[in-house]
Specification:
By secondary structure, this protein is of the alpha+beta class. Helices cover 40% and strands 18% of the residues. Strand 11 and strand 12 form a beta hairpin. Helix 9 packs parallel to helix 11. It is elongated. The two termini are 58 Å apart.
């Protein structure tokens, strides 16, 4: 077998190629920090509640740092752990990050990337400096000389040791000369991103339902993992919380506000009734789409880290807009549901496809609740939709039994009244208007079905015939019956059999 060369451009694919959104660097570094904190708590180095992650943005220095007080990396393992690519010792059943790629995320957005770490019991720390600027030069070079990933890393990575206290344990990522174009030093944007993406707590001040969610999750033996993450910029230091709130605007123009009235807790089970995920869904008045993108949509999370964004589950709804009317989170529990490398969804395996069935069922139930809430709120809408449903039932019965001209005329009048009721209906909001539109579409289908109904029920149920063909055959069958009623049944059956074959 020939020697396999992993070329230098692999680094480009694993940095700028994989992470198109610059804010992903915060997710990746927080994810690694959280895993390190979990390790420290499991080892007794930290007690729950002592954990801390600090993100510091320095506008003057064009510098970003992410520091955690987790277990850190012992000096003998630091180089191998931090310089190796795609070779992580983490257990994917326990850790949020396990591919050994995310630490490179910052390379595309700064000139220098630095890792500093030490572990308990050492009096030495390890600092690894990666020259991102030199990496960019190598990748853009037209020099025909082949360079492997190992060659490039040897040229751009520098390792040094420094004195540290025995009791210290931490990991720190530093980005120097951060690219201005990436807007990574915008504290408001960074706060919003982390608040939606990372495993931070619910705000005790603006989201009183957070405590109730914790209580109800506990009844299912699930403790939601949360971590204290601080954002620092100059003298301004803020604890980061999820953006959910008890009250929220649904119509900025008219100032209309909706509020959470209750929380539904939903379990999504596998075929053996074991929990794949557990979700909280906000029960509101469902007055319309939620304008605030920070809180709209049902979101996927694993280890309380986001998978995708507020639009990822749109595809589970027959009409994607209804996800935007909803609010909630789905916490994935099944270890076989693995986030893909981009963390914008899960790996496509048999467990994932079973999971999507559960998600579609959840979405369907939610749409029914949204519609029912709107109908309950608008009695005029309820009456109009009821007329459409009654028309649909009557036409279905007619298809099964056949109709004479008088009965068909009566049904035509019934559907006409249903259509007029829809026309006369006044919409209270955009959702009522949408349901009115759906009802018109359903009524058009009912009317089309009615036009093709004949007196012969066997003719009504043959698929593939146009309305015109059914009407012509109905006239032919009536002529046959009037000419020789005794022989008509066998002849009509033979004709129907021929059309059924087609």
């Amino acid at each position: 077998m020939h020697d396999v060369i992993i070329g230098k451009y692999t680094l480009e694919s694993l940095t700028s190629g994989m992470y198109a959104d610059p804010y992903v660097i915060f997710r990746e570094y927080v994810q690694n920090a959280v895993d390190s904190i979990d390790s420290a708590i499991a080892a007794g180095i930290l007690q729950t509640g002592e954990e801390k992650i600090v993100i510091d943005l320095s506008l003057l220095e064009h510098k970003i740092s992410v520091t955690d007080n987790g277990s850190g990396i012992p000096s003998p393992d630091a180089i191998k752990t931090l310089v190796s690519i795609g070779n992580s010792s983490k257990d994917f059943n326990k850790s949020r990050g396990f591919r050994g790629i995310g630490r490179l995320a910052g390379l595309s957005y700064c000139n220098t990337l630095i890792f500093e770490t030490t572990a308990v019991g050492e009096n030495v720390g390890t600092r690894i400096t990666i020259d991102s600027k030199r990496l960019a030069e190598i990748l853009s070079s037209t020099n025909s000389k082949d360079m492997t990933v190992a060659d490039v890393l040897t040229e751009i990575c520098f390792v040094e040791a420094f004195q540290e206290q025995n009791a210290s344990h931490y990991f720190k990522v530093v980005l120097l000369d951060v690219d201005n174009a990436a807007d990574l030093l915008n504290s408001n944007a960074v706060y919003d991103y982390i608040s939606q993406t990372c495993p931070v707590p619910f705000s005790p001040e603006t989201f009183q339902w957070g405590a109730e969610i914790h209580r109800r999750l506990a009844t299912h033996q699930y403790a939601l993992p949360e971590y204290k993450i601080c954002l620092s910029q100059g003298p301004d230091i803020k604890d980061i919380y999820k953006p959910y709130c008890d009250k929220f605007c649904v119509d900025k123009k008219n100032g209309e506000v909706d509020k959470i009235q209750d929380i539904d807790l939903v379990r999504l089970n596998d075929s053996d009734s074991r929990p794949m995920a557990i979700a909280w869904i906000a029960k509101t008045r469902f007055l319309g789409t939620i304008p605030d993108k920070r809180i709209k949509g049902i979101r996927l999370r694993k280890g309380n880290m986001s998978i995708g964004d507020n639009q990822t589950l749109n595809v589970m709804f027959k009409d994607a807009r209804f996800n935007g009317w909803s609010m909630g989170e789905i916490y994935v529990l099944d270890s076989k549901l693995l986030p893909n490398a981009r963390r914008d969804n899960f790996e496509k395996n048999p467990t994932y496809f079973l999971f999507t069935e559960q998600l579609m069922s959840l979405a369907s139930s939610l749409v029914k609740e949204i519609r029912a809430t709107s109908v309950k709120r608008n009695s005029e809408l309820a009456a109009a939709i009821k007329k459409v449903q009654e028309s649909g039932t009557a036409v279905d019965i007619a298809v099964e039994n056949g109709v004479n001209p008088a009965e068909k005329g009566s049904l035509t009048q019934k559907t006409g009244r249903a259509k007029q009721a829809l026309h006369n209906m006044k919409s209270n909001d955009s959702h009522d208007a949408y349901l009115q539109e759906i009802a018109f579409e359903e009524l058009d289908i009912i009317i089309g079905k009615l036009q093709g109904i004949t007196a012969f029920k066997a003719l009504n149920t043959i698929e593939g015939l146009t309305k015109t063909e059914k009407i012509i055959l109905e006239r032919v069958f009536k002529i046959i019956v009037s000419h020789d009623e005794a022989a008509s049944t066998e002849l009509i059956d033979n004709i129907l059999n021929e059309f059924s074959k087609k």
